[in-house]
Amino acid sequence: MSRKVVRSSKFRHVFGQALKADQCYDDIRISQMTWDSNFCSVNPKFVAMIVDASGGGAFIVLPLSKTGRIDMSLPTVCGHTGPVLDIEFCPHNDNIIASGSEDCSVMIWEIPDGGLISPLKDPVVKLDGHSKRVGILSWHPTAHNVLMSAGCDNVVILWNVVHGEAVVRIDSVHTDLIYSACWNRNGSQILTSCKDKKLRVLDPRKGSVICEKDKPHEGSRPVRAVFVSDGKILTTGFSRMSERQVALWDPKNFGEPLTLQELDTSSGVLLPFFDPDTGIVYLCGKGDSSIRYFEVTDEAPYVHYLSMYSSKESQKGMGYMPKRGLEVNKCEIARFYKLHERKCEPIVMTVPRKSDLFQEDLYPDTIGPEPSVEADDWFSGKNGEPILISLKDGFVATTKNKEFKVIRSLMATTSSSSSNRQSDSAVREHRNPLPVYCVLMNLSVTNKLILPFFLFHIQDVQTLQALQNEVKELREMIEQLTQQVSELESK
Question: Transmembrane ranges (predicted)?
Answer without folding.
Answer: none
